[in-house]
Amino acid sequence: DDHLVIMHDDTIDRTTTGKGLVYKLTSNQLKAYTLKNHHDVKNNELSIPTLIETMDLLHTRQIQANIELKLPEDLPENE
């Protein structure tokens, strides 16, 4: 749905409470799952961050990042 998220893997299976390919899930579906073994003091649970959320956090803390974009056509199943 044209919302970029921060996720290392092609799927959410290993790192979240959900299952599926990242690019086949909407941002709302992705936000419904929480990260495994990560808890936020305020919210109790952390969800998959969007690129915008991450950039905002990095900016407020004056941190630089190297971001690698992965497009669905770059996935092994589509080669």
What would you note in describing this structure?
- With 79 residues, the protein is mainly alpha-helical.
- The chain is 19% helix and 0% strand.
- It has two helices and no strands.
- The protein starts with 26 loop residues before the first helix and ends in a 19-residue tail after the last helix.
Query: Helical stretch count?
Result: 2
Q: Report mean pLDDT, rounded to a whole number.
A: 86
Described by its quaternary structure, the protein is: single chain
What is the percentage of strand-forming residues? Answer: under 5%
Q: Which word captures the global form? A: globular
State the order of secondary-structure elements, H for helix, E for strand: HH
Beta strands, count? 0
Query: How far do the termini sit from each other?
Result: 22 Å
Rg over alpha carbons: 13 Å
Largest sheet: none
Structure keywords:
79 residues; mainly alpha; 19% helix; 2 helices
What's this entry about, in short?
It contains 2 helices and no strands. The protein starts with 26 loop residues before the first helix and ends in a 19-residue tail after the last helix. Helix content is 19%, strand content 0%.
Topology (SSEs and partners):
Elements: H1 27-31, H2 51-60
